[in-house]
Amino acid sequence: MTAVTAGSPPSPPSPGTPATPETPATPVTRVVLVDDHPLVRAGLRALLDGEPDLEVVAEAADGERALDVCREHRPDVVLMDLSMPGVGGVEATRRLVADGPDVHVVVLTSLPDPGTVHAALAAGAVGYLLKDADPTTVVDAVRAAAAGGAPLDPRAARAILPGRVAPPALTTPGEGAPRDDGPEARPGTVPPATSQVGGREADVLRLLALGLPNKQIATRLGISERTVKAHVGSVFRRIGVADRTSAALWARDHGLGPAPADGPSRQGY
Question: Which of 103, 123, 152 is the last residue of a domain?
């Protein structure tokens, strides 16, 4: 056998020896952490960097710094605290989305009140988690946001999908009997959404409003992911929205809360 000296090219493989296929690289989701507590950021970094498909590329302790690091690193997902000195999380989210609409902001906060949830989603956040969430939930939420989902903590979902309270019945002047002229005549209410979205599309919209990505919706309803995608597109066209967060807010305003305990409706397969 001829020795290979330093600097010599390696011998070609023997005839008939199959080439070793290259393993495709796993796509990595780039994440920026925004929180004014170093301990929180350290814990999140350890959690996310322990996943092969996630990488924390930068951190920021306030909203102003978050804008700078996101312009520099162009992350896929930003985990955003809300209560910070200087520029807060809601305003930082608004500026980030305006600056780079491809970034997916997921709020991670200890504030579950409806007003804060509404403000964050209206600013452009695609998800809303609370800091007592299970670590696996946070990891899954980052992946879901990067894939186009809208991860919402159930408590945040309830904040944007509250129970509807019927107003008092109307009374015709001069008559003692109450009269109900339907939802159109009741102040502060809107007509039911079933005239616009019904059957299987309503089932999809309910689960979408809870922040589930298409794959999980398909599993819940026992249909294909391709069918779910078609339903989502149809729902967007029917109600006149362009994204999942807007669809969730529309569902809230039109009384399409989470599906009943006995499961989704069986109409419109």
Answer: 152
- Output the pTM of the full model: 0.57
Tens digit of each residue's pLDDT (9 = 90 or more) over 212-245? 888 889 899 999 988 888 888 888 888 877 777 7
155-209 residue pLDDT tens: 887 776 644 333 333 333 333 333 333 433 344 444 444 456 778 888 898 888 8
Residue 15 lies in a domain: no
Question: Quick check: is 58 in a domain?
Answer: yes
DSSP per-residue letters across 157-205: HHHHSPPP-PPPPEE-TT--SEE---GGGSTT----GGGTS-HHHHHHH
The phi and psi torsions of 32 (rounded to 5 degrees) equal -115, 135
For residue 224, CA distances in Å to 91, 189, 227, 249 come to 38, 35, 5, 25
Whether the Cβ atoms of residue 123 and residue 91 lie closer than 8 Å to each other: yes
Count structural domains, the chain: 2
85 domain-assigned: yes
Domain hosting 207: range is 190-269
Last residue of a domain, one of 152, 175, 201: 152
